[in-house]
């Protein structure tokens, strides 16, 4: 079971690594309910982030993870999945 949560800071880092998009973590947190496309992230970029998280934590995320529309929705799904040990 994983006890750490993926944070907005980590998501911002992953957005840079997986999709080449630079986002200020504080801006991401303040605009957590804004659609990903506001930050320039599309579903393919989000899929890259999902793959990176699956590799990093050795856990599969739900198949619809890349369909999350906002950073908050995505982090809630990822963190609930990781802490449940899925």
From TrEMBL:
InterPro entries: ACP-like_sf (IPR036736), PP-bd_ACP (IPR009081)
Residue ranges constituting the Carrier domain according to the UniProt record: 5-86
UniProt-recorded name of the protein: Acyl carrier protein
Organism: Streptomyces griseoloalbus
């Amino acid at each position: 079971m994983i006890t750490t949560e993926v944070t907005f800071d980590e998501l911002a880092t992953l957005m840079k690594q997986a999709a080449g998009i630079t986002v200020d973590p504080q801006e991401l947190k303040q605009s957590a309910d804004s659609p990903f496309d506001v930050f320039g992230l599309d579903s393919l970029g989000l899929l890259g982030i999902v793959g990176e998280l699956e590799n990093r934590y050795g856990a599969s995320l739900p198949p619809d993870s890349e369909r999350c529309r906002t950073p908050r929705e995505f982090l809630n799904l990822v963190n609930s999945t990781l802490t449940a040990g899925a």
